[in-house]
Amino acid sequence: xxxxxxxxxxxxxxxxxxxxxxxxxxxxxxxxxxxxxxxxxxxxxxxxxxxxxxxxxxxxxxxxxxxxxxxxxxxxxxxxxxxxxxxxxxxxxxxxxxxxxxxxxxxxxxxxxxxxxxxxxxxxxxxxxxxxxxxxxxxxxxxxxxxxxxxxxxxxxxxxxxxxxxxxxxxxxxxxxxxxxxxxxxxxxxxxxxxxxxxxxxxxxxxxxxxxxxxxxxxxxxxxxxxxxxxxxxxxxxxxxxxxxxxxxxxxxxxxxxxxxxxxxxxxxxxxxxxxxxxxxxxxxxxxxxxxxxxxxxxxxxxxxxxxxxxxxxxxxxxxxxxxxxxxxxxxxxxxxxxxxxxxxxxxxxxxxxxxxxxxxxxxxxxxxxxxxxxxxxxxxxxxxxxxxxxxxxxxxxxxxxxxxx
Length: 406
Fold this sequence. Notes:
The chain is α+β, with helices and mostly antiparallel strands. The longest helix is centred in the C-terminal third of the chain and has 44 residues, at 266-309. The protein has helices at 3-15, 18-57, 85-94, 128-132, 145-149, 159-165, 210-218, 236-250, 266-309, 311-319, 324-361, 369-395, 399-403, and strands at 60-65, 69-70, 73-74, 98-113, 116-125, 137-140, 154-157, 176-179, 182-190, 206-209, 225-230, 261-265. The strands form 2 sheets. The chain has a 6-stranded mixed β-barrel. It has a two-stranded antiparallel ribbon with strand order 2-3. The two termini are 26 Å apart.
């Protein structure tokens, strides 16, 4: 019996029991749709996090003072003074794998303009900080090297600060605001960046020359940190090694001495968050995949029922020359047709459900072709796996006993 005849027989058998066939497909449909939707949500979250980290500077490197041991007690790293201006200048002149570098000092306090005020943080940086953090000017200008040399009391503010201090929507450029009791002239307004993946408002920021913050606000000679940017994201690890070597040499540390500074990169954060989202995506996909197993069991159950109902038919086919392999193929084709049809419907519903989640719940989604292909492949394998045993049972029936079956 050729394949075309077997396919026609299988289609006829399924069309005679349309409702039963559809209910059998339902498990596969739900399973495939669930897997595609869960993977789309997981991959969408991962891509969203990667984009937000890229906006923060995916090749950013953060250097901070290291905590020290004094009398057996580990000191607070923020109180350490292990980073000096000499470290920044040495890195700026000697490091070959970084494209931008900026000192970093900051102070929290109250910003005031007229009757309006808001708590915020003033960050003392140089112009390279804009490139490192992927910041851009919407209106006005950035402070110059001359402003840094003269410790000028000028600043650039973010959108949140501007909205809080100038609620009437007036242009803040040229206005003088006070940080605690120190006046700053606003010379620039940053483009809005919104919230990052950790829920921090990236627009609640004030940038000023680092010399101004060090001398006029903090009255310190050391740095609270150094921010740098590797030439490319792939070169971040090599850049970290280069910075470590230069700082250890600058601090005259012996081979046996621990680093008196800490270096972190956005690449580490990206890897950690990606691992977390991958784990959650896998977990969601596994939970959704259980529906496929349940659907497969449903196929096996219905195929068993079908074999029992059609025992006499099987005996008649065998008595007129049908071989065991023909009977096996017939029932196996029925199982595969159920799973493939359910898979196609499940794919369409899964894609539709993913876009529904995007537009109704406003969650980020990303449907990868491999997830659709994998779901479809799994449901086909499920049909073969769970349909084979009932089909084999049908093929092994004794023709005479099958004909006599009531």
